[in-house]
Amino acid sequence: VKRGISSFIREQPDKFHRRARRGIPAEYRWTVWKACVSHDERFVRNVYWKLTGLGSENEQWGRAIKIDVPRTFPRDQAARNGSQMSEVSLYRILVAYANLNPDVGYCQGMNFVAGLLLLVSGEEEAFWVFVCLMEYDGLAGFYRENFPLLGRYTHAFDELLARELPDLRDHFTEEGVQPTLYIHQWYLSLFINCLPLQTVFVLWDVIVSDGLPIILSISIALLKVLRPALMQMEFEDIVRFFKTMKTGRTK
Questions:
Q1: How far apart are CA 219 and CA 43, in angstroms?
Q2: Fold of 148-247
């Protein structure tokens, strides 16, 4: 980090990715994430506060954001610092982005992504990393009208599942468990609303450093670990299992 993480990424990309996949130390995480998304090159001073000052011109977005913000980390009070200010900051970030890109506006799931960034950074930097992920790394495609990118990723995931875990896919098909039952939640929240927070941070180290397509490999790797348990379950138990993964109460 002292030598400059951006230079390290450019000069030794393979070594960097190997290290990132082992997990980035918490004290360096934000510095590395910013470098991975080229935050410093894309940051524009004073723009964020101007965007927040515009308010929410679309009443539907404003109402949805106000409803979703308090729900973002309801079981992670310590992580949220228990402060009202964190919710105010999250609200401002989501409104600012909706004003920046009204074609996307706001969609449920974006609150988890922006909220996680706020857990490791200040408000303005969190906004710009959010913008980098949405606008430059392609994440906005998950939230556009009719969810075009989400549909393509779901199809790609299903093909990968058939190739890598055919027995599990057949079992899911027999039980009526379609990929949309779980994969949409995984991808719209980038796993934040599905797994324990400390696990999510490690996965995000890989996602931010490798890029959005890596979520397909992460999904398959996760199911490979869960496969023995899932193969023994029927529909209701599978649904319950996926819903309780975040708390770890999956027995």
A1: 31
A2: Cyclin A; domain 1 (1.10.472)
